[in-house]
Structures are given as structure tokens and as C-alpha cells.
Amino acid sequence: MTARILLLGGTGDALRIARALGPEHVYSLAGLGRVPADLACAVRVGGFGGAEGLARYLAEERIALVLDATHPYAAQISANAARASAAAQVPYWALRRAPWQPQRGDDWRMVDGWAGVIEAIAPFSRVLFTLGREPLAHLDEVPMHQHWTVRCLDAHAGHARAGVIDARGPFTLEGERMLCEAGRFDVIVSKNSGGDATEAKLAIARELGLPVVMMRRPALPPAQREFTTVQDVIDVLGNVVQHI
């Protein structure tokens, strides 16, 4: 009997892995964004009830391997997955793609958390947020001297000093250049997500001389096996699942 894999996803990388999985495996989504309809594996949407609920699920569903391919900033999900895997005595693997590195000409302002972001953008007037949904909870806090543009997956109402763009990467150099020039941004706010789907904004910031307020990555739990690319994961899964 083939060992069952629970793939924790919600990223483009995770979707690529999910497309390589057969029907006995499970792709888990937190519930944000679109649910893919072209997968052979099972798809589960929603939370597990913390680490304890996930540990129960692993036992009940006879999961033999947890593969964490969630976003690098989904620290709580990763922590729960590591704890649950240990409790259920199931191997915990993780895809941890490499962070971006500043290049010559970059002006990165490193911060920790939302309070750090607000402090770093205080001198600027036209801000492009590429953090995901978090700024949506703060649209009523936009200072009088600023206009925010928030790009995320969710359609959301803006107001006179805040606009929302619902868009999903990958983003091109040409598209990012047009966006930044049309928006007349003087600062970009980003997470150091790594990968190439959203990296174009950094190249355009470099080209236009825009500072980037960059949120540091949170600490993530160690995994028994860590991968940095999707292809590395796919290359080993076919051989490993028969021997877990």
C-alpha cells in the first residue's frame, strides 16, 4: 500500500507539487484563494484545529508523511505541523525556498512586523503594499499625508486614500514597471518570499530607485528533510513514498 502524503499548501510551489500527487494523497488549503480543480489528489479546505487537531487527523487518515509547502511567513501553520507530526510520529518535511538577496543598487529597509512597517513608511507619501491581506485590516489608519495601494488576492473596497488591487502572480517586469509608474509610488513594502513569481517588483524598484521596506522572515521549525526547490521535492517523492 502506498504511503499517504499530506501536503500543506496554498502557494504556487505547493500547487506544482500537488499536480504530481496521485489520488491517495491529500492537498490541504487554509481556504484562501482559488481551489484548484485539475488535481488527481484529494483536496482538503479549512483548518485542523491547531496542532492537536492536526495530530488526530494524521492518525485517523493514516498519513505517513507531512510535507509543508506553505508560505515562508505562515509561521503558525508550520509550527503546528511540526508539533503534530512529532506527536503522531510522522516525518515532517518542508519546502523552504531561498529568500531574495539584495543586489547592487537596492535600498532595502529591513523591519520586523507591522509596527516596523508603519515606522519605516512614515516619511513616504505613496505606498505600494505587496504583503498580502494584512494591510486590509488597517485601511482606516492611513495617515493624512499618505495614499496606500494594496495588492493582494482578495477583492476589497478601498477609499479616497487607499486602493486595492486583487491580482495573482506571476508578475512581469513590464507589468510591474507600468504599475509603479502609473501609481507614482515612492516606496514598496514586501515580504522576502523568495522565488521568481513576484521578484519582478524588486528589479523595477532597483531600476526606478525606489526603496523597499522588507519584512524579515519569521523563525520556522526545523524539518527532518528540507528542500529549496519544487523540483527537488518532486524528484524524491516517487521513490520515497513506497518506503515510508
From TrEMBL:
Against Pfam families, the record matches this protein to: CbiJ
Q: What is its EC number?
A: 1.3.1.106
Superkingdom per UniProt: Bacteria
An example GO biological process term is: cobalamin biosynthetic process
UniProt entry keywords in alphabetical sequence = Cobalamin biosynthesis, Oxidoreductase
Q: Does the keyword Cytoplasm apply?
A: no
Question: Does Cell division appear among the keywords?
Answer: no
Give the metabolic or biological pathway. Answer: Cofactor biosynthesis; adenosylcobalamin biosynthesis
What GO molecular function terms would the record report? precorrin-6A reductase activity
Please give the PANTHER family that the UniProt record associates with this protein: COBALT-PRECORRIN-6A REDUCTASE
This protein is called what? Cobalt-precorrin-6A reductase
